[in-house]
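Class, study these two lines:
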Amino acid sequence: MSSRGPRPPPRRRRPPRPSCCCCCRRRSHLDEDTGRFVLLAALIGLYLVAGATVFSALESPGEAEARARWGATLRNFSAAHGVAEPELRAFLRHYEAALAAGVRADALRPRWDFPGAFYFVGTVVSTIGFGMTTPATVGGKAFLIAYGLFGCAGTILFFNLFLERIISLLAFVMRACRERRLRRSGLLPAPLRPEADGLAGWKPSVYHVLLILGLFAVLLSCCASAMYASVEGWGYVDSLYFCFVTFSTIGFGDLVSSQRAAYRNQGLYRLGNFLFILLGVCCIYSLFNVVSILIKQVLNWMLRKLSCACCARCCPTPGAPLARRNAITPGSRLRRRLAALGARPAPRDPDAEGRRLSGELISMRDLTASNKVSLALLQKQLSETANGHPRGACIPARQNGFSGGVGALGIMNNRLAETSAAR
């Protein structure tokens, strides 16, 4: 017999981790913003197709009936008055040209006096563009190009600042309500001193902003529709339709307010018309931007679902052991020092480094360093909560699917709770 003892049992090898599929590798190289853009473009295409189908089904029969009635009217008029149909159509073309120049059968207000011109430039810089008044001269068209370039840019900046003020107002209300509740409970006996950036930690939810802007838009549209229905003689549904078309800067031009030669209380009506349009455009513009944030959240959710479906085989198995939460990893201080100096640490073994044996001792230096870090984080969170800043800046904006952005998107990414970097 051999003097050797029993051979130790063979060491169990860990099964290899499944390799990532090729589509996942391609997905990792694809920029998230590009994927979001492509997905949104596809959804908008489907939305356009669905809208065209619905409107074609609703409006096409009425158009066919109107064409048939107009053809019968032309034939009856030509037969009754002895006018050839080609001559009658030529006369109607002249009338259409006069209509485009602002001539109407009924008495209307002058188009190019100062109030009419002011109404026109208001529709230009707000991008409404009803089309009822258009420049006919070469000089007017050339001036409109330069005037609209700077006017539209300035007005969009005004809309963005209006949205920023709305969000800041909500943050101020949130802070005031919290301070009042703390004073009532006795936790905040003395009033806080004013700070330079006192609203930095107060970020209202996008759903609260959506609710407030939606209620304000509905209230504004209902009040404006009541005014237009009583003054212009439109139906209430037509007035609501005009409010949405105008406030959203679509501006079809089939219904236009303040176009008669005279009104009762004309000055008061024109002032109310101006204020309703100004507030309505600002409110609907802000509401559209907030809704776009919700659409972006849906796109991020869809991208995550697609990514999870693609990488289902790459996820760890449910029975895999989890790392210890409070384990101190050897060499962590060295890696932090190398990262601060800009050097790249050596590759580490994830199987041997992330755990310690139960009988292994750790140095007092590593223990005190880890406790200091945990204590510092705890003190920072307690200090921010006591000072009225419930949200700390610890998660970058790219992790929640929102980049910095520009314009209204940048304002909402920095000032809303669901999209800001400080969450």
